[in-house]
Amino acid sequence: MILEEVIDFLRKNPPFQFLDDVMLKNVANSLSMEFYPKDTVILRQDGPPSDAIRIIKKGSVKILMKAEGSLETVMDFRGEGDSFGFVSLIAKDRQKTTVVAADDSICYLLGKDRVIKLIESSPPFAEYFMSHLTSFVDRTFREMQGRSLMYSGTDKLLFTTPCGDIAKEVVTVSENSTIREAAQVMARQKISSVIILNKNNIPAGIITDRDLRGKVVAQGRDVTEPVKNIMSIALIRVDANDTCFEAIMKMIKYKIHHMLVIRDGELKGIMTNHDLMLLQGTSPLSFVNDIEQQQTIEGLAPVYGKINNIIGLLLQEGARAGSVTGIITEINDRLVKKVLEISERQLGQPPVPYCFAVFGSEGRKEQTFRTDQDNAIIYADISSAPEIDDEAKRYFADFTALVRDSLVQTGFPPCRAGYMASNTKWCQPLRKWKEYFAHWIKEPVPDSVLKSLIFFDLRPLHGKISLCEELSSFYMPLLSQYKIFLGHMANMIVKNTPPVGFLKSFVVEKSGEHRNEFDLKLKGITPLNDIIRLFALENGIRMTATLDRINALKQKHPVVREYHEEMAHAFEFIMMLRMHYQYEQIKDGHPPDNFINPDKLSNLEKKTIREAFHLISKLQGMVIEMYKPLIV
């Protein structure tokens, strides 16, 4: 090391700037230097205390913490001139955080003995570390808990409780037992279900009190029949170590209220919707049940209004963004499907099969509080009967108008840009949709690329799903043939840059209603969505959810392979920050939007969002380099 360069470096960074020239020279002479390749664990939580203060000369590190009952979470990033390791060095206690090299990094090491001498001889040096660093872990951890951005509390709640903790003992009967005998066991044990075992004592099915009402009493069935005649064969299972949230997601998906709990391949117990409601106080399942029971649009309207309560509860429990949007998607999907079913009953069955598809945030399963209508209809081609084609057009014109108005009534505002099935342009036979995509891909003018950005997130929701799948199978090979289209897409998406300047200052609106604010969705979530969508289309991945796309690309795309953790973390953080601020707006009686004033963010949030924006900028730079031959 060249002594003068080291002294010059120290003089620019606190707290060494407080030292006089003699002290600086002594410090510089006592430093050693270490190189840490990217992803190196420098200090590990609960490991031995640090043996030195490390000052980052080049590169950066991320500080992670794992609280009891939660996942390890990034709590801070530190770059050139920052230091770490002081707390455990002084406290002689186990390391309270994990420090990992975020890039290839070089650090100066200032040993413990020299640190102690500086604390004793330089009050400014001591004050800096004592006041700014000793409270870092406790301060940031309390902040994250209080804002519920990353962590849940210590109570046994939905996202921290393993299914095995609330599973009840399984009561079984043999498949040859009579219906009466099974019902007597349920009455005697005061339970709502019983598991049916086959001759090998392996679970073969389940009967519930609903089965007894619907399949026996209502149909006047002979109660001396074998119970296997009325059992439900599909047994949905969950691992004892899975969280109760995962169980709820399965119950919603498969429309069930009882679930087997398995540990190490063996039957551990059974859990019910009622168990989850007792655990949480309320359950998203109750909303799904409300939706399923409604037979009118008027009956559905109050249900949607309750969804915000569920989101608030999930946020308070410290659920991650992917978990919250997963629940919202499941509930909204059920609500839309119910609207479609009611509309079909009112107008009669359609003359041809159709698929009701959604796109935008709904297509990516990333809805938050305010979700407008983004949907389309793909119906089957009619080649030999023009009169049926005319009948289909008349039917779907009435049907889509009814669906649009019904969704408005239940809480989904119409799309201002008209991207709805009620717009005849987006209610077409499959052949017409193929023409759309072929035109967009083969002639990628700006309007075509813009439309493709929207419709490439198309997800089938109701009806004949294979119509949407056939459309995907049609346009995916075209992308390989017309790579220039991806170049035009890359050219468009890199123009939407994140709101951060060269000096790490936030770029905000200069005037108008949102003065001193920036659009977190448009400038944060959208460019990240666009980059991941581009990589997914390039690799033939049909998934639409951003986190699913990132996971699928880990082994297929070099950029995602290197940065998938940072991408997922940035996406989760921006989405969660957006939801928290929207929730606060709703509680204050204001309609939610996507604008945030950075001055209202905590220092930790500012630092994290700034790092996320810099990551997006870095990824956009990589897109430019990768697609340079195709970008026009």
Describe the protein in words.
α17 (386-409) links the parallel β16 (375-379) and β17 (427-429). The chain starts with a helix and ends in a 6-residue tail after the last helix. It contains 25 helices and 20 strands. The relative contact order is 0.07. The protein is of the alpha+beta class and 632 residues long. A 4-stranded antiparallel beta sheet has the order 1-8-3-6. It has a 4-stranded antiparallel beta sheet with strand order 2-7-4-5. Strands 17-16-15-18 form a 4-stranded mixed beta sheet, with helices on both faces.
How does the SSE layout of this entry go?
Layout (H helix, E strand, L loop, with lengths): L2 H9 L9 H10 L1 E5 L4 E3 L8 E7 L2 E5 L7 E6 L4 E2 L1 H6 L6 E4 L3 E7 H10 L1 H10 L3 H12 L15 H4 L5 E3 L4 H11 L3 E5 L5 E6 H9 L19 E3 L4 H11 L3 E6 L2 E7 H8 L3 H10 L3 H9 L1 H10 L4 H27 L6 E5 L1 H4 L11 E5 L6 H24 L17 E3 H13 L3 H10 L3 E5 L1 H17 L2 H10 L24 E2 H19 L7 H8 L4 H30 L7 E2 L6 H24 L6
Parallel strand pairs: 9-10, 12-13, 16-17
Antiparallel strand pairs: 1-8, 2-7, 3-6, 3-8, 4-5, 4-7, 10-11, 13-14, 15-16, 15-18, 19-20
Give a brief rundown of this model.
It contains 25 helices and 20 strands. It is α+β, with helices and mostly antiparallel strands and 632 residues long.
Keywords:
25 helices, Jelly Rolls, single chain, CBS-domain, Beta Polymerase, domain 2, alpha+beta, 4 domains, 4-stranded antiparallel beta sheet, 632 residues
What's the β-strand tally? 20
Radius of gyration: 29 Å
Strand order of the largest sheet: 1-8-3-6
Tell me about the biggest sheet? 4 strands, antiparallel
On the 0-100 scale, what is the average pLDDT? Answer: 83
Q: Bin the helical content.
A: 40-55%
Please give the count of helices.
25
